Structure formats: structure tokens, C-alpha cells
Amino acid sequence: MARIELQGLVKDYGKIRAVHGIDLSIEDGEFVVFVGPSGCGKSTTLRMIAGLEDISGGRLLIGDQVVNQREPKQRNIAMVFQNYAIYPHMTVGQNIGFGLYTSGLSKVEKQKRIAETGKILGLEQLLDRRPAALSGGQRQRVAIGRAMVRDPVAFLFDEPLSNLDAQLRSQMRMEIKSLHRRLGTTIVYVTHDQIEAMTMADKIVVMRDGHILQVGTPTDLYENPMDVFTARFIGSPSMNIIAGSASAGALSVSGAELSGLALPAHEGKILVGIRPHDLVVTEEPGGAGLNSQGVVEAVEPLGAETLVHVMLGDTQVIATAPGRVVPALGSTVSIKAGPGSLYLFDADTEKALGRA
Amino acid sequence: MTATTPSSTELAANSRNIRPGRIIAWTLLLIGGLIMVTPLLYMFSTSLKTSGQVYDLRLIPAAPTLDNYVKVLGDGRFMQWFFNSTFIALTVTASNVFFDSLVGYTLAKFRFRGRYFIFLAILSTLMIPTEMLVIPWYLMSSQFGWLNSYWGIMFPGMMTAFGTFLMKQFFEGVPDDFLEAARVDGLNEFTIWWKIAMPMVVPAISALAIFTFLGNWTAFFWPLIVTTSKELYTLPVGISSFSAEASIQWELIMTGAAIGTIPTLIVFLVLQRFIVRGVMLAGLKG
């Protein structure tokens, strides 16, 4: 196990800079998830850690060693790929054992390790099968097994669940999480799925355009996003963003009444963020916070709750109603967000100003 | 479980489905098949005839005999030619599979300056006809002392542009993740190529091996030019020498040719699914 440290890490492809000097400390045994949209530099960063991409600038430390110039095999890390990358011409046992190809272990010791790994991952009965005869989840387990068997200092996962269906993805999330608890090995995990990030990470790293926007625990990022991008990226459904303005300590939002809110000192245009779960359809409007009425544009009954798309001024927002309440399309409903649930952002910089 | 048999109405419906266009197509295919197979049948037929019966064009010989086979197989030179052809075809095939794959893999999977230029240069050699190359090959062989040697026969075909092109195209289809996973697992580049990439392109290797083997097994022009001693003749050159002596011994030529087709037939029968796939992959080059 080892600590991984990124110091001003840069990646250039010709004249294009893909990663802009990022700094990050990943503690020993930590589960860190890089999250962001396609092209944000998260996979490139992971590949630099793995040694599959040259580092254009900065330093990468694994343990206390600078590993910029080291080959992947000299870094003692293991990687699980999006398409599993298990070899179709080898059996499950051979695939898992392939991680030990250069280990110098005896055949008996290799077999023992393969059997142990197979047992941990529930693959004992499948060791003689070929990958073609496995389900997606089983294939992913084989890929994890090949990574595990080497006892590496860190696991790198590159969107490993993207090819699985929703149900299997949820199951594998829990399996990877429990594997982490069991092994205690540092994990760096890349995904574009914020649910994966929220459910698995000890620490989430939000990236955009080759920059790290924010690093924190899932709760930190959910409760205290530092900008509009992170606020909208973390949380499902995405945070509603409504244009407003602040003047002389008063906040105004088109089509809504605001009262009893403590506002940060700011003058000018602002963006008001409200999470759909904080914006509720109510039959008792009024009180402190944001109150409004709007026409129902769409409803999404989810069972436990109903997502109600409502026009607030000229912006469509998503509010929530209890599961059994399904407002009629075109009807007018009252919506309300209590004090402390409004996230305020500077309209120009999109940086957080605080909550109201 | 009950077995289902087609009823008379189903059979009638099927026979109505046979359209005239299909009948014409089948007839043309049948004619084409007969045209292709007739020389082969005559070859086997003539090999079972005596010298006096050669011009009797009946397909089934009046008095079939295996004397020609006894004579040809008993001739030490024929077995030497058979060995020469086998050795040359196998060596050149192994060399092509190894070198064409290695170069194809390098061009497909590594990014380096001049990669595209090298590929174009290799590809451009496909445009030069063999006849144009024979004189430089001969001069080269002469200067290096390779005339009348196995190496002299084999060297022009040890690596081919076509094989390199075929393998490059195939390796491009191998996802990089497999190779990168092996890199992370600590394998060196040669082992990655050999252990991971090569097993993933077995159909292409089979196609390349078949084309190369058949091409070299039937090679005539260059072996005829580069060899002078009969001990080094390949099978086609040796068989042709039956006609260069006092008279043309058709029955012996056909017997030699019939024996010579056996490895080819075995290759076709064993690997026919790969041949079809290989031809599809390689366009029309055969």
C-alpha cells in the first residue's frame, strides 16, 4: 500500500494541454474517485499514474519515490479497464494468473494465489471457463481478480462499470466497495457517473477541462459545492439554477417571493441553486425561504417520490412531491424551498457565494 | 418429442419457391465447377494410365495402373524435390508469419515519426511486378553467392508487403486496453506481441500462412532461374523437367502433379474456413 502524490502534473498532446498542473494527495488506503464529463482529463490523469502516458510536467510520487520515468511494471500498481481487457484466448484461471507472469513465484504458489483470489471473488467454479462463457459481471470480477492477485500498492479503475446494466452496476459498486474495505489498498477510480462517485468514494475529485475544480468527501461536495459546475454535477437530479440579483442585502428572483433569508454581502447578478429535493411541492405556501407558484410541465412518478417539472418565471425547475402526489399537467402548484437550501453563485465567475 | 416431417403441401410450396433466376445461377455455378474440376480429374486419370493410353481421352482409364506412382516415388530425385518444396514452403511461411506480424504490429500499435512513410514505402512495393524484380534478385544472389542454394530460392519471399499490410490491418482491430493491461502486468513489448496480440489475430495468421504456403509450394519461375543443380529443384521445377528430356512423359508429369497437390488439398481441407475468411479479409489477393 502507498500514498500517491500529484505535484503540478501536466499532460500535453502536442500543443494541446490536456491536464493543467494538478496537485493532489491520495492517502494510503484511501478510495479516491475522479469524476467529470468526457474530455475533462480524468482518464489521462489515471493513465499518467499507471505509467501508460508520459508525464509532460510536474512530479508523480508513489510512496516516497518519484516515478515519472518508471515503466508501468516498476510502479507495482494494477489497473482495471473499462472493457475488462481479459484475454479471450485464456481461461479465467489463466487470466487471473497472468497478473503473476513476471512475479517469479513457483507454479504451486501461483496456483494457490489464483485459487485464493477466485474464492474471494466467487469465481472458484469458473476458473476453467473462457471469458466468452461469462456474464458481464463475471468478466469484470476476473479483471479485478487479475489486478488483485499481484498484491499491488494501488488499484486503478478506469470506468470499470460503464459496460454493465444498471442493476449489475449497483451490485458491483457494493462489491468493489467491500473489496476495498477488506483489502485496504489505495484505489483511484475514474468515472463520469456521479452516483458511482458519491456511493463509493472516501474522497471525490471533480475535474473539468484538465483542472481540478474541487476535492472533498461526497457530503462536502454535495453540501458545499464551490462552483455551479460541481453543484450541478454532484447530485441527481441536477441542482436547479435560477437567475437572480442581489442588491442592498435583498435577493430577488423572477417569479418568486423570498423572505427571512440571511444573504451574503454581494451586489449584482447572481445564480440561485436549489436542489430538487429541497424544492417541494406544497399545499401550505408561505413562511421563510423561497415561495412561488408555477405551471406543471411534466411529472416523473418514481414511486417513493414524484419529480415535478414546474415553470418558475421563465426557468423550468424540478421540484419534488411525495410519491402518491402526482399533479396534473398544466395545473398550477405552489413550490417552496426553506432557509439554508438556496446556494448562491456569482453569475460572472460561477463561484459559490454562500448559502441562504 | 416428435420428429417433424415436411408435409406434401410444404414440399409443393418449397418447389414453387425455386425461381428461374436461381436455376440459371445454379446452372452457371455447375458449369463453372465442372470447368474447374475437369483438369484435376484428367490429371488423376492420366496418372493412372500407361504411356500408350495418354492420348485416350476417356476419363476412366481402360486399364488403370499405379506403375507411374511406383516409378515416380521410387525415383530419389522426386522425393528430394518434394522435400525441397516442403522445406522451402514451411520456412518461408514461418518467416512471413513472424516478420510480417512483427512489422504489422509495430506499424499498427506504436506511434513514431515516419511510421506512415514506412508503411507507404512497404505498400508501394506491391505495385512492382515480380518480373521486374527477378533481374535485381538474380544479380544480388550472384554477387552474394546465393545462386543455387536454398537461401537463394527463399530470400525474396521471407517477408512480404502483402503480409505486412494484412497483419497491420488486423492488429489495428486489437483494442489497446489488452496491450496496456499486459504492460501494467509487467510484460515486455515482445512478450506482449507474442502472448497477447498474436493469439488475437489467429484468423489473419492462418490466412497469411495458407497464402504463403500455397504460393511457395507452387512457385516455379524464380526457383527455375536461381537453381542449376537438379538436387535443389522444387517440385514444380522438377516435374517440368520430365518434359525437358527425350520425350514428354505426360503420365509421369501428371503423377508428379497429383502427388504435389496432396499437401495443397490437405491444407485446403483442414483450413478451408480460414481460407474463405482470409480471402474476404484480403480482398482479392490470393
From TrEMBL, chain A:
GO terms for biological process: carbohydrate transport. It is found in: Cell inner membrane. Residues 4-234 form the ABC transporter domain. Keywords: ATP-binding, Nucleotide-binding, Transport. CDD domains: ABC_MalK_N. GO terms for cellular component: ATP-binding cassette (ABC) transporter complex, substrate-binding subunit-containing. SMART domains: AAA (SM00382). It is a peripheral membrane protein. It comes from the Bacteria. NCBIfam families: PRK11650.1. Belongs to the ABC transporter superfamily. This is Sn-glycerol-3-phosphate ABC transporter ATP-binding protein UgpC. It comes from Devosia oryzisoli. The lineage of its organism: Bacteria, Pseudomonadati, Pseudomonadota, Alphaproteobacteria, Hyphomicrobiales. The gene is ugpC.
Automatic annotation (TrEMBL), chain B:
Belongs to the binding-protein-dependent transport system permease family. It comes from the Bacteria. The keyword ATP-binding does not apply. GO terms for cellular component: plasma membrane. The chain crosses the membrane at residues 23-44, 81-105, 117-138, 150-171, 252-271. It is found in: Cell membrane. It comes from Devosia oryzisoli. GO terms for biological process: transmembrane transport. Residues 82-271 form the ABC transmembrane type-1 domain. This is Carbohydrate ABC transporter permease. Its main location: membrane. It is a multi-pass membrane protein. PROSITE patterns: ABC_TM1. Keywords: Cell membrane, Membrane, Transmembrane, Transmembrane helix, Transport.
